[in-house]
Design a protein that fits this description.
The complex is a heterodimer of chains A (228) and B (263). Chain A is mainly alpha-helical and 228 residues long. Chain A is built from eight helices and no strands. In chain B, the strands form two sheets. In chain B, strands 6-7-8-3-9-10 form a six-stranded mixed beta sheet, sandwiched between helices. A four-stranded antiparallel beta sheet of chain B has the order 2-1-4-5, with helices on one face. In chain B, a hairpin with a 2-residue loop joins strand 4 and strand 5. The chains are: A mainly alpha (228), B alpha/beta (263). Chains A and B meet through helix 5 and helix 6 of A and helix 2, strand 6 and helix 3 of B. The complex binds adenosine-5'-triphosphate (ATP) and magnesium ion (MG).
C-alpha cells in the first residue's frame, strides 16, 4: 500500500500528460471533422453524378476499413513508399498524422449523419421557403439548419462518445496519449516498472470524460425540445 | 383587363402528360375555384404557377406582363424566378410551417429577410423590423390568432396552423393567393374556421385561386369555377353556371357525387 501511495503522484502526473494529448486529438478531430463532414455530405448529394459517385466511394472505403489501418497507412505510407516521411518521427509528426487520419475518418461518419439529417426534412419546408421568395441559402440557414441539428444531435453524440475512446487507436503509431502513458509503467518508466494498475486506471479518465459529454449532449437535446 | 393570364400550359413528368394545354384568365378581385377528380392535375397547375414545377410549354402573364415563358431561358434564372413568383402566394394542404419559429416569426421571417436587401435597412433597422412585426400582428389578429402568436406550430391545432400559413402568405402581399386543398388535412370540425377566413378574404376583394373538394364552399365563394379532368380544362365559367347548369357530361357526373351530400 505504501508503494502505491509513492507511485500514485508519479503515475497521475504521467497520465494527465497523456490525457492532455488524448484531449488535443479529440478536439482537433472535432474541429476539423464537423465542418469537413458537411462538405463531404454536400459532395455526396451533388447533382453531378460523377462527383457524388466519387464521394460515395470514398465514404464507403473510409467507413468500410478499420481506422487503425488508415492510421498506419497515413503515417507510414509516405515514408516507406515514396521515401518521403512527411510527418517526421517525433511526437509532433505523429500527432499531425493521427489528426489527419481521425479527421478524414470522422468526417465521413459525420457526413452520413448530416446527409440523413438533411434528407429527413420534408420537401415542404423547401417549398414553403421558395414560395416565400427565399434564396436556397436562406432556406438552408434560416429554415432547415436548426431542424437538421435537432435531428442529428443524438447520432452525433454517439459518434463523439466513440471518438473519445477511439483516440486510443493512435497508440498504434506510438502517439503518447493516455494508453501509451499507462502502458509505459509496465515496461518501466520513471523508476516504476511491472505495474499494470496505471493502464486500468486510464479507464477512469474515459469514464469521466464521456460522463461529462453525455450530460452536455443531454442539455443540448433539452434545449432543442422547444419545437418539434 | 385580366390580372392573370395563363396560356397553353403543358407539363409532363417523364412520359406522363399531366397538364395538356391549360389556358385561363383571372380578373382582379375574383376568386377562381379549381375542381376535378383526384389526379386531374390541379396541384400540378398551382405548382407551375408558383414555379415549384417548371411548365414545359406555355406562358404566364400578370397584369399583361410576361413573368414566365417556357421558351425563354431568361425567365428561369433563380433570381428572376424568385422575384416573379412573389406575384403569387401558395397555401399548402399540409401547412408547411417552420416548426422552430413562433406563429409570429413564421409570418415575419420572409419579410425580414427581404428587408435586409433594402438600401436603407442598416439605417432604419429598428423601425423597419417594428413595421414588419406590426403588420404580422395585424394579419394574425385578422386570422383570429391574436392570443396564439407566441405559440410554436406544434402547440397549435391544424386549423390554427393553416390560418398562420395564410397569414404568412399574405405578409408578402401577393397579387394572387393560391390554395391547394387548404382544409383536406384538417379534422372536419376545424375546416369551418379556415373556410371562414378565406371567405373574409374574398369579401375584401383578394384575388384567389382555390383548389378544393369542398363543393358548397366553392360554389359560394367563387366567381369562376374551372373543372379539370385528366389534364384538361373541361369546363370553365361563372360559379352558378358550372354548378347549376354544367354542359359537359363529365362535370355532371363529378358534381352529382356531391349533390346529395355536400351541396
Ligand atoms: N413529381 C411527380 N412525378 C411524377 N408524376 C407526378 C408528379 N406529381 C404529380 N404527378 C402525377 O400527375 C398527376 C396529377 O397530379 P396532381 O397532384 O396534380 O393531381 P390533383 O388533381 O392535385 O389530385 P388530388 O385531387 O389527388 O390532389 C397524377 O397522376 C400524379 O401521379
Ligand atoms: Mg392535389
Amino acid at each position: 500500500m505504501d508503494l502505491f501511495f509513492e507511485q500514485f503522484p508519479v503515475v497521475f502526473k504521467a497520465l494527465n500528460i497523456g490525457f492532455l494529448q488524448t484531449l488535443k486529438l479529440f478536439f482537433v478531430t472535432l474541429v476539423g471533422a464537423l465542418p469537413l463532414g458537411l462538405l463531404i455530405s454536400f459532395g455526396s448529394r451533388s447533382k453531378v453524378k460523377i462527383i457524388s459517385a466519387v464521394f460515395k466511394v470514398f465514404i464507403w472505403i473510409i467507413r468500410g476499413t478499420p481506422l487503425m489501418i488508415q492510421l498506419l497507412i497515413i503515417y507510414y505510407f509516405p515514408g516507406l513508399v515514396f521515401n518521403n516521411p512527411i510527418w517526421g518521427g517525433n511526437e509532433e509528426g505523429r500527432f499531425t498524422a493521427s489528426a489527419v487520419a481521425f479527421i478524414i475518418n470522422y468526417a465521413c461518419y459525420f457526413s452520413e449523419i448530416y446527409r440523413g439529417g438533411i434528407q429527413s426534412i420534408p420537401a415542404g419546408q423547401d417549398e414553403a421557403g421558395l414560395v416565400l421568395g427565399m434564396t436556397r441559402s436562406q432556406i438552408f440557414f434560416k429554415v432547415k439548419l436548426l431542424q437538421m441539428i435537432k435531428r442529428i444531435v443524438p447520432p452525433i453524440s454517439n459518434e463523439v462518445l466513440t471518438l473519445v475512446k477511439d483516440t486510443s487507436l493512435a497508440r498504434i503509431i506510438a502517439l503518447q496519449e493516455i494508453i501509451w502513458a499507462g502502458q509505459s509503467f509496465m515496461k518501466g518508466s520513471q523508476g516504476i516498472s511491472g505495474v499494470i494498475w496505471p493502464l486500468f486506471f486510464t479507464g477512469v479518465y474515459y469514464l469521466i470524460c464521456n460522463g461529462l459529454l453525455t450530460l452536455l449532449f443531454g442539455k443540448l437535446e433539452k434545449k432543442l425540445e422547444f419545437f418539434r | 383587363m385580366s390580372l392573370l393570364t395563363a396560356s397553353h400550359i403543358c407539363k409532363s413528368f417523364e412520359k406522363t402528360e399531366v397538364l395538356k394545354d391549360i389556358s385561363f384568365n383571372l380578373n382582379e378581385s375574383n376568386v377562381l375555384s379549381i375542381i376535378g377528380s383526384s389526379g386531374s392535375g390541379k396541384t400540378t397547375l398551382l405548382r407551375c404557377l408558383n414555379f415549384l414545377e417548371k411548365a414545359d410549354k406555355g406562358r404566364i402573364l400578370v397584369n399583361d406582363k410576361v413573368i414566365f415563358d417556357a421558351e425563354d431561358e431568361s425567365y428561369l434564372k433563380p433570381a428572376v424566378l424568385r422575384k416573379n413568383r412573389l406575384h403569387f402566394g401558395l397555401v399548402f394542404q399540409s401547412f408547411n410551417l417552420f416548426p422552430q419559429y413562433t406563429a409570429l416569426k413564421n409570418v415575419m421571417l420572409a419579410r425580414m429577410l427581404q428587408a435586409k436587401n433594402d438600401p436603407d435597412y442598416k439605417l432604419h433597422k429598428k423601425e423597419i423590423n417594428e413595421a414588419i412585426e406590426a403588420e404580422a400582428v395585424a394579419l394574425l389578429s385578422q386570422m383570429g390568432l391574436k392570443d396564439r402568436m407566441m405559440n410554436y406550430p406544434h402547440q397549435l391545432s391544424g386549423g390554427q396552423c393553416q390560418r398562420v400559413a395564410i397569414a404568412r402568405a399574405l405578409a408578402l402581399k401577393p397579387d394572387i393567393l393560391c390554395f391547394d386543398e387548404p382544409t383536406s388535412a384538417l379534422d372536419p370540425e376545424l375546416t369551418g374556421e379556415v373556410l371562414k377566413v378565406i371567405r373574409e378574404l374574398a369579401e375584401q376583394k383578394a384575388t384567389m385561386i382555390i383548389v378544393t373538394h369542398e363543393m358548397a364552399f366553392a360554389r359560394d365563394v367563387s366567381d369562376e369555377v374551372m373543372f379539370m379532368d385528366n389534364g384538361y380544362v373541361l369546363e370553365q365559367g361563372p360559379s352558378a353556371e358550372i354548378f347549376e347548369n354544367p354542359k359537359e357530361e363529365r362535370t355532371k357526373q363529378f358534381l352529382s357525387r356531391f349533390i346529395s351530400g355536400n351541396l
